[in-house]
TrEMBL record, chain A:
Residues 14-37 are annotated as: Disordered. It comes from Daphnia lumholtzi. Keywords: Mitochondrion, Ribonucleoprotein, Ribosomal protein, Transit peptide. It is found in: Mitochondrion. InterPro entries: Ribosomal_bL19 (IPR001857), Ribosomal_bL19_sf (IPR038657), Translation_prot_SH3-like_sf (IPR008991). One of its GO terms (biological process) is translation. Belongs to the bacterial ribosomal protein bL19 family. Its main location: mitochondrion. The lineage of its organism: Eukaryota, Metazoa, Ecdysozoa, Arthropoda, Crustacea. This is Large ribosomal subunit protein bL19m. One of its GO terms (cellular component) is mitochondrial large ribosomal subunit. The keyword Nucleotidyltransferase does not apply. GO terms for molecular function: structural constituent of ribosome.
Automatic annotation (TrEMBL), chain B:
GO terms for cellular component: mitochondrial large ribosomal subunit. The keyword Ribosomal protein applies. InterPro entries: Ribosomal_bL17, Ribosomal_bL17_sf. Belongs to the bacterial ribosomal protein bL17 family. GO terms for molecular function: structural constituent of ribosome. Keywords: Ribonucleoprotein, Ribosomal protein. One of its GO terms (biological process) is translation. It comes from the Eukaryota. Pfam families: Ribosomal_L17. This is Large ribosomal subunit protein bL17m.
């Protein structure tokens, strides 16, 4: 009973405003709301950096208490292991604990072609070509078996999903397994790689001509493919305001969620930066 | 499990949004559905109070609220919002009305911008009945009389408690007299 009461009290707890917020030493991120109380607001880029903190918008499966508990667990996991900021198109290396391998660890390097899921079930897929064989591995970000996630090259591509790499020439998906972490030239902006990928000749796994891909070279298909794509297209969906609304979390709710989570994330980042600097100084 | 779409920021709507949209079947299919709703939203912005069948009114309410909330959030210099206004409002002078009249009117609203009131359900007729969809703050006389007596107002709360006290005192007095009657007999 006591546990249930405690969990219920978490829901009733208001978002920090006015005096409680003022006492915390959080850098900037304080705005005034209508009543003049200071409210902690996370920077707007947070929704791109940590998209898994936002819940699945489908109202049938939403459960505010479960989401709150998941966020607590996610922060707890992030305090143990560093889950860096990454996007589709970034090249990453993941080390997983594996009982059956000789070193007890398995390391895989690849380009992130897709990411999805929300809460503790957030996942991403890494793709690489090893010995002329394309390999894709889906990693769950908060799985306790994951020992280390490194982002070797942080960049974005022109599309949110790079599944077309499966039908592209293998050179676009090949990355050396012993690749080292590249230094970022500009820490404030994530570069967008405008590369246009060349696809192999048909047959393909999906009808890429129907998907409005920006990161693919001209497909050079016979006109009948484009005609059929036009026939099958749904141009009115671009204007369907309620369709978009049902697929997103409203801005006010996003702000609430990130306001809860952002101070702890910032503290974790600061601690890691200090540890890195101390490690660097020790080496020197 | 899907990740929420991050490309656009939308304001929360202050109406109840059903999880699934209605299909509003018509010969042109899904394209025709949006065409019908466009006509409804245009009429709502033009006349500020329209009477129509309930299912279409419910769908159009969502779209009207989204349009107005986008216009308030982003203003008229935002390309996407202007495209939406251009699509949803068939008469172009209503785009001006949206940004110049409706946005200032609803700027500081904490409630929804539209009101959906159920209308008469005549038999025989359309099963779902009619509804009246109106923009709040319109110049017409109110559809529903204002309620001037809410149970949670302070004087009503105090009166209720006073009534309860009076009744319990009355019961005690009655119990006292009946006891005295029984003892006597």
């Amino acid at each position: 009973m006591a546990i249930v009461e405690h969990l219920a009290s978490l829901l009733r707890k208001p978002i920090e405003t006015s005096d409680e917020a003022g006492e915390r030493s959080v850098s900037t991120q304080k705005t005034e709301d209508e009543s003049g109380n200071t409210v902690i607001v996370a920077p707007p880029e947070f929704r791109f950096m940590y998209p898994e903190f936002l819940p699945d918008p489908a109202p049938e499966t939403r459960n505010r208490l479960r989401e709150k508990l998941e966020r607590m667990d996610m922060l707890q996991r992030r305090s143990v292991i560093e889950i860096p900021e990454f996007y589709t198109g970034s090249i990453m290396a993941v080390t997983v604990a594996d009982a059956n391998s000789p070193n007890k660890f398995a390391r895989f390097v690849g380009i992130c072609i897709q990411r999805g899921g929300s809460g503790l079930r957030a996942w991403f897929i890494l793709r690489n070509v090893v010995d002329k064989q394309g390999v894709e591995i889906l990693y769950e970000m908060y799985c306790p078996l994951i020992q280390k996630i490194e982002v070797l090259r942080l960049e974005r591509r022109l599309d949110e999903s790079l599944l077309y790499l499966r039908d592209a020439l293998p050179e676009y998906s090949t990355f050396p397994l012993n690749m080292e972490q590249e230094r970022r030239l500009n820490n404030s902006v994530v570069p967008i790689n405008p590369i246009k990928v060349k696809l192999r000749p048909r047959p393909w796994l999906e009808r890429w001509e129907r998907q409005n891909l920006q990161g693919v070279e001209d497909l050079n298909l016979p006109q009948r493919f484009y005609d059929k794509a036009e026939k099958v297209a749904k141009p009115w969906e671009k204007y369907d305001l309620m369709l978009h609304y049902r697929k997103t979390i409203p801005a006010e709710e996003q702000e609430k969620i990130f306001a809860e989570v952002h101070s702890q994330l910032q503290q974790q980042e600061l601690k890691r930066k200090l540890r890195r600097r101390r490690g660097f100084d020790n080496e020197q | 499990m899907n990740q929420a779409d991050l490309s656009k920021l939308v304001s929360a709507l202050r109406i109840a949004v059903k999880p699934k949209p209605r299909l509003l079947s018509c010969p042109e299919g899904p394209a025709g559905r949006l065409k019908k709703l466009r006509a409804t939203v245009t009429a709502l912005v033009k006349y500020e109070r329209i009477e129509l069948n309930y299912p279409r009114a419910d769908e159009a309410q969502g779209y009207a609220e989204r349009l107005i909330s986008d216009a308030i959030r982003n203003g008229d210099c935002h390309k996407h919002t202007m495209e939406m206004a251009d699509y949803w409002l068939n008469e172009k002078q209503l785009v001006h009305k949206l940004f110049k009249v409706l946005v200032p009117r609803y700027q500081n609203y904490n409630s929804s911008f539209t009101r959906l009131v159920l209308g008469p359900k005549t038999y025989p007729g359309y099963y779902a009945g009619t509804a009246i969809l109106e923009l709040k703050g319109n110049p017409f006389p109110a559809l529903q009389p204002e309620n001037h007596n809410y149970h949670y107002w302070l004087h009503n709360v105090l009166l209720e408690e006073a009534k309860k006290e009076f009744r319990s005192a009355q019961e005690e007095r009655n119990a006292g007299t009946t006891e005295s009657v029984t003892t006597e007999s």
